[in-house]
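[scheduler] slot 2 assigned
[scheduler] job type: sequence-to-structure, two independent chains
[scheduler] chain ordering preserved from manifest
[runner] begin chain α
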Amino acid sequence: MTKTKPLAALVALAMLAPLGACSKSTTAEGKPSNADTTLASAIGDAPKLSTVSSALSQAGLAGVFDGPGSYTVLAPEDAAFAKLGTEEKTLTDPAHRAELVALLRGHILPGHVSPDAIKKAIAAKKGPVSMRTLADGEVTFSESGGKLFVTGADGSKAQVDGAPIVASNGVVLPLDGLVKKPLPAPAG
């Protein structure tokens, strides 16, 4: 990795942070956000996010989203998890909790970052912007045809699918796929 890559990530993060703060009180449609709903409640109430909501609970991460910290959750929709087939069932097996936690942490960013803020950062940089996940991996945001895409370090790519869900302590970006592939289940 070159020395400019971490610097570019820091610059992108610095650009995104103030922009995200500006959009915290409204949704993408200009509607007021629900300031008294936490991320955990917002994810639990979203009809297409029941699988990620259950996974967060099983992994012991749901409680984090009831606290004061601010996060952006890249939340794969139920259909994205369904595409995993038997791998989804393996992930939710208590014996594979560590793999589930690693997968989910790869979908969580520190701070509140709205799609509008990401698009502004992409326009300002004239190209993709990257951010670090809580799994210490990197995701890269790009825009094509007015649509926002997220690519994980392993090449997994998903589109932001629908309006963001704004909560008191962050934002949920529904995705049509996963941006971190699950680790293969151990044989046996």
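[runner] end chain α
[runner] begin chain β
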Amino acid sequence: MPHIPVANFAYRNNGDLTFTNQARAGGLAQPGFSNGAAYADLNNSGALDLIVNRIDAPAAIYRNRARELSKNHYLRVVLRGSGANTAGIGAKVVVRQGGTTQLLEQMPTRGFSPSVDPRLHFGLGGSTTIDSLRVIWPDRRSQTLSNVAVDSHAHAVAAGRHWPLPAVPPGSVPLFADVTDRLAIDFTHRENRFYDFHASR
């Protein structure tokens, strides 16, 4: 385990395959022993707050003030599945608005044991209308919700029409081809004899 507190890192995607550490600008650079994080809208403000687990210290809770500063809009979708899958795990939600399409899958677990807010959160920027909201349930049923207001909670209950898997047209060429045998890669992995817990000399 580390003995010296280390500052957190928070990277912003620049949109050009590069990232910039924004931890200090975002108020997240406090030194500590962070070893896990989750996000949830703890105060129902429409912005996802951040919870960071720290060793030998209380969890750090960071309030997200983005909506106060930007006045952007959001949509939160709450799923109610059928049968034993009450949370709708595996369902996909597609939101289209202002020429933008967003897709989220209901899979709240992250890593070994943490979980994020099971309510699906969509940031809408300056859009004040939603063109469509479609839910595709794990059993391939789907439904489309209409007249969904922004800055609100949309509730979707497992229902809708069953859409069978699309048939493969006869004679079509598959997208992928197995070329393993043709490559004839002659390689066998051999583990090195390294012990993590031996004292270094």
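[runner] end chain β
[qc] chain β: The two ends are 19 Å apart (CA to CA).
[scheduler] slot 2 released
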